[in-house]
């Protein structure tokens, strides 16, 4: 497990356990990504992370990413095309608002877990677990460290110059 500066190993394990439990009821995939800073719109950044993690690579296109940048205190939740077609408009913002309220109250781990559970419920309603279901995405927390963030920024700058 890669260290997350704002989460203890025990907190990380609780989040991973919540992901595993949520995915037991759905064919959908849930990922949590944490990084220090977001230098752009958090939804735009979440889309880039979604692509970098290849979350679109699921049979039913029903992956959901919970994105957090802890130093800049922003977060976003985005889903792949199939889940976005069936959930009501504004659904992610409701979960996001609840998560941000938990963060404001100092309940960081609990806020992430509650978001994972809410996403899992939505996925299970529209994409219930199937007997042939396989885990298509890792359950551990995806982490981008400051060093990796600097490397990624350099890559983006060179891509823009090309």
What is the tally of helical segments? 6
Write down the CATH topology: Diaminopimelate Epimerase, Chain A, domain 1
Whole-number total of structural domains = 1
Instruction: Indicate the structural class.
Output: alpha/beta
* Rg value: 15 Å
- Indicate the overall shape: globular
Helix share bin: 40-55%
Average of per-residue pLDDT values:
88
The largest β sheet comes out as: 4 strands, mixed
What is the topology?
Blueprint: H1 9-23, E1 29-35, H2 42-52, E2 63-69, E3 74-79, H3 81-86, H4 91-104, H5 108-126, E4 142-143, H6 146-161
Parallel strand pairs: 1-2, 1-4
Antiparallel strand pairs: 2-3
Helix pairs in contact: 1-5, 4-5
Keywords:
50% helix; alpha/beta; 4-stranded mixed beta sheet; 14% strand; 6 helices; 162 residues; globular
Task: Describe this entry's structure for a reader.
The protein has 162 residues and is α/β, with parallel strands linked by helices. It has one domain: Diaminopimelate Epimerase, Chain A, domain 1. Helix content is 50%, strand content 14%. Strands 3-2-1-4 form a 4-stranded mixed sheet, sandwiched between helices. The protein starts with 8 loop residues before the first helix and ends with a helix.
